[in-house]
Amino acid sequence: MEEKVEMMEKLSIAGELAAGAVHEIKNPLSAIRGFAQLLENSFNEADERREYTNIIINEIDRLSELIKEFLVLTKPDNRHYSKESINKVIGDIVPLIQTKAVMNNVSIKTSLCEEIPEISMNKEHMKQVFLNLFNNAIEAMPQGGELIVITTYQDNDIKIEIIDTGCGILPENIKKLFNPFFTTKEEGTGLGLSICKRIIENHKGSISVDSNPGKGSTFTIHLPVLI
Ligand code: ADP
Ligand code: MG
């Protein structure tokens, strides 16, 4: 028990340090980006150095994205809670991914239970969860397919299923899926699912996955309605 407390303290200190470091990294990054941009503009159109500076800028943007995601993981989450409808959060996110879905030939279907009560949540974080999961689902269906979102409610438990007909997940990858930095994508950060897990656990819920390689995957979230 004592060991566990000590471990938790160490983790929390590590989290604070990481969050601090992330802030310190942001400013120099934006300075580097600004000057790289100036440099790029100073070369004429045909100069191949324009391409190099462009790569620098793209890579800085990738780093910034990574850092932004990392902050969600390290930031303590004790503010910004309000009573919200999970269906509404999902309804807000669907239009945001519609373009990407259409480009990938993915059709989105939703079946949302009307009886779900509002629950106390960090709405911005919760939106992030669905954005990450929907993005992953679409990325798993480059040849097109279906993304189905189902919400149900029973015994103070909200169940949300996110089903795709995509590539599926190999059994050996299932247990690594929620680890930070685990990715099978060339341009992936591997932070999306670890952030989802962290956010859902902050809401006293759980997230799990079930997959058939070659057929598709289902991510299931349970959120308690605390009374
Ligand atoms: P990223 O998307 O940056 O790779 P994530 O944490 O969001 O990071 O996902 C980690 C990995 O889990 C992905 O690289 C992919 O291999 C796998 N994955 C996640 N969602 C799905 C899905 N719906 N179908 C198939 N594989 C998935
Ligand atoms: Mg992802």
Offer a few descriptive terms.
single chain, 227 residues, alpha+beta, five-stranded mixed β-sheet, two-stranded antiparallel ribbon, 52% helix, globular, binds adenosine-5'-diphosphate, binds magnesium ion, ATP-binding, kinase
**Gap between N and C termini, in Å?**
29 Å
The helix tally amounts to 6
Structural class: alpha+beta
| Quaternary status | single chain
Binned strand content: 15-25%
Bound molecules: adenosine-5'-diphosphate, magnesium ion
Helix content: 40-55%
Question: What is the makeup of the main sheet?
Answer: 5 strands, mixed
Biggest sheet: strand arrangement: 2-4-5-7-6
What is the gyration radius calculated from CA atoms? 20 Å
Mean pLDDT, all residues: 90
Give the overall form.
globular
Count every beta strand, where a strand is a DSSP E run of 2 or more residues: 7
List the helices and strands in order.
HHEHEEHEEHHEE
Q: Residue ranges: pLDDT <50 for 5 or more in a row? A: none
Quick synopsis:
With 227 residues, the protein is of the alpha+beta class.
Give the secondary structure arrangement, pairings included.
Layout: H1 2-42, H2 49-74, E1 81-84, H3 86-103, E2 106-112, E3 119-122, H4 123-139, E4 145-154, E5 157-164, H5 171-174, H6 192-202, E6 206-212, E7 216-224
Parallel strand pairs: 2-4
Antiparallel strand pairs: 1-3, 4-5, 5-7, 6-7
Helix pairs in contact: 1-2, 2-6, 3-4, 4-6
The structure holds adenosine-5'-diphosphate and magnesium ion.
Description:
With 227 residues, this protein is an alpha+beta fold. It contains six helices and seven strands, in the order ααβαββαββααββ. The chain has helices spanning 2-42, 49-74, 86-103, 123-139, 171-174, 192-202, and strands spanning 81-84, 106-112, 119-122, 145-154, 157-164, 206-212, 216-224. It has a five-stranded mixed β-sheet, with helices on one face. A two-stranded antiparallel sheet has the order 1-3. A hairpin with a 2-residue loop joins strand 4 and strand 5 (157-164). Helix 4 (123-139) packs antiparallel against helix 6. The model has no long low-confidence stretch (mean pLDDT 90). Bound molecules: adenosine-5'-diphosphate and magnesium ion. Magnesium ion binds next to helix 4.
